[in-house]
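Supplementary Note 2. Why include the ligand at all?

Several targets in our set were suspected to adopt different conformations when bound, so apo predictions alone were not considered sufficient. For every target with a known small-molecule partner we therefore ran a joint prediction. The input for carboxymethyl coenzyme *A is given below.
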Amino acid sequence: MSNETLTVTDNRTGKTYELPIDNGCVRAVDLRQIRTGPDDFGLLSYDSAFLNTANCKSNITFIDGDKGILLYRGYPIEQLAEHSTFLEVAYLIMNGELPTSEQLAKFNHHIMEETHIHENIKVLVSGLRYDAHPMSILASAVAALSGFYPEAKEVKNSEIRRANMMRLVAKVSTIAAYAFRHSQGFHFNYPNSDLTYCGNFLTMVKRMNEAKYIPHPTLERALDILFILHADHEQNCSTTSVRVVGSSEADPYSAVAAGIAALYGPLHGGANEAVLRMLREIGHVSHVPEFIRKVKAGEGGRLMGFGHRVYKNYDPRAAIIKRVCDEVFEVTGKNPLLDIAVELERIALQDDYFVARKLYPNVDFYSGLIYEAMGFPVNTFPVLFAIPRTVGWVSQWEEMISSPEHKISRPRQIYLGYGHRNYVTLEKRH
Ligand code: CMC
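The joint prediction is reproduced in token form.
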């Protein structure tokens, strides 16, 4: 008998069960056989925030949160950030292997050709209020794309799936640029497929009335690195949302729109926006100790950009971003909030509260400082997270939908409400 099993004794009945262990997991449905009698549904596992539940098998991204390791398809994030480009990483994540130069050229060409969007998406974006949050614009417009590509519903057709994955990765950058321009009250710039992915995005965002806008190469490369760092992060809140919505076999635009909605929250992709607001509120390095005291006392909210469900060590992405900060600030001038951030980190990393809870800077702690120095307003930061994360979402979506184990996601609940009771007519209620 294999010793890859777990022996469980149910003390209610005295019965013993042997559950197989596969890849370090017991299957929750194997608990169902543990019953007190024929009317008992069987034992459930309870994990309301997925603290210790694997919801899929995946080959895409590996994280070792204790050691601070992040790998895409086996390649360390540090090597990809140093040597690769965002579109090459997108190819890797979407296809499983690094491309040859021919494959990469074809992929780049295909993505850049797909950056154009239907004119009616412009109308949709223009129809939203001038102060609509760019994330709500992005979520609405991405969901609306499903109306432009109705064949995307054919989620069992791998060719159609691929075509729509490519469209999503391409078009999200154009919609994001439109969302930014709308919130600024500026005209929309059409995409230019002769440029790089990030060069094109920066041009759509920044170009005013110059005949030719040329983004600063350091800033273009910095954005490319930031996009590499954000491309995937295994089963986080937004990716899980994409998988759950996609599990009903909804089209990928609807599933990715759900991912954008999940990313919007301040505990997820909205954290980089929250970090900047927090740094502004702190205002000066001398106010840092008092701010930390309030966080610890539960009076001042959380230290945004710190802590992570998975990383119990320095987030490897934060370390790379901190280095990119220096390169960007050489071009843009230093963001004065950097000193406050560095001081927060210095104090927090030696404070027992943060040390005991293994709270370290995460990806969002420094990224907002770069985005701000590059001229992006805080409400566009989550959008800058959503653009590259679309690569991860579509790849995870495809992995889910093409898995032989694919089924609609449908958790159970622990019902604590009333048992059966009879309806009381309105006149008899007091
Ligand atoms: N500041 C102060 N205390 C914190 C923080 C923080 N940023 N994060 C966690 N804690 C404390 C928390 O109060 C709790 O303390 P206690 O045990 O005394 O009750 C303990 O640490 C464990 O926290 P938790 O909420 O159970 O941890 P979690 O895994 O559910 O939450 C988190 C993870 C990222 C939501 C949380 O650390 C947080 O709110 N951080 C700030 C928001 C943030 O930066 N989010 C970006 C995450 S990285 C980007 C991404 O991948 O989306």
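The chain has a mean pLDDT of 95. Strands lie at 5-10, 15-20, 61-64, 69-72, 75-76. Comparable summaries for the other entries are listed in the accompanying table.
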